[in-house]
Amino acid sequence: MIGNVLMSGVINGVDPATGAVASGLEEQCRHMFAHVRAIVEAAGGSPGDILKMTVWMGDKSHRDALNREWLRMFPDETSRPARHTFQSEMDGAIEIQCDITAIIGARVSE
Predict the structure, then answer these.
(1) Angstrom distance (rounded) from CA 2 to CA 24
(2) Checking CA distances to 110, which of 6, 87, 94, 103 falls within 20 to 30 Å?
(3) How far apart are CA 25 and CA 65, in angstroms?
(4) How far apart are CA 44 and CA 85, in angstroms?
């Protein structure tokens, strides 16, 4: 973090209890979003401070799992961050990963 700008490295669906990549896309998405929340909160922010999320998926046609977790974390359609989703070859059992950019403490005024 520099000033109030937080940029993450790659965040994936590793199960924090085991340290292993979670089994299946649904579980990987749940863990990935939990890690996103933990990272932004550790920096003193909240999911509302996330400006942009870039997502890489092994198969974009399975975006339903991503979208379910996306809507859980960002239920208000008027304040969701920008999102760009790419299809990419993943390493090993990883099916999805992301990175985020957040501005901690900044609120968009209307």
Answers:
(1) 35
(2) 6
(3) 7
(4) 26
> What is the rounded distance in angstroms from the CA atom of residue 103 to the CA atom of residue 59?
30
Residue 50: how many other CB atoms lie within 10 Å? 26
Which residue has 């996306």 as its token pair? Answer: 70
Taking residues 44-66, report their average pLDDT: 96
The first and second tokens of residue 95, run together, are 């099916």
pLDDT above 50: residue 83:
yes
Pairing relation of β-strands 50-57 and 96-103? antiparallel
Check residue 110 and give its pLDDT.
42
Please report where in the chains the tokens 């979670």 appear, as a residue.
Answer: 22
d(C-alpha 10, C-alpha 98), whole Å: 6
pTM above 0.90, yes or no: yes
